[in-house]
Input
Amino acid sequence: MLKFCRTKFVGYEKVDDETFKVFGTLDDTIYSMKVDLIIKLPNLEISAIQGEMRRFTTPFCEEGKAFLKKAIGLKIEPGFQSKVKRLIARPGCRHFGNLINECCEAIIPALLTQTYRDRKFDDPSITFDTIIQDLSEKYPAIKNYCSGFSKILEEKSA
Output
């Protein structure tokens, strides 16, 4: 019987007030790879990237690593995922492209939770709505992150 299992893991570390390290792994029956990104604030821009393929199917797979450098300078904003597909996934490696997109999807929740954690100590009454409002002013890309955020921001401005 043919069996297949895929696991993806994405995490982050706050390096300093202006830098996040985001990392992800994809491990399945056929492929195993990881990617590490450095995201600079306030522009949510990829400033560095490294990738490693541990298990792959053809010699061409490893050549996909060369396309990772095209992510440097990309900003996490509307259209980001399409750019990653066009610049990295299609010409290089679809799995790397998917993993980069997964990692960058994590940066906004990372900003929210890290900011909430940092500010909750000083102001126990602070809410996620307030954090979303404050972060959306500092990082406009947050406004387009999800419809729930848009709804919160509309209610706050009304």
About this structure: The chain has a mean pLDDT of 88. Residues 39 and 53 are 21 Å apart (CA to CA). Strands lie at 6-16, 19-28, 32-40, 45-55.
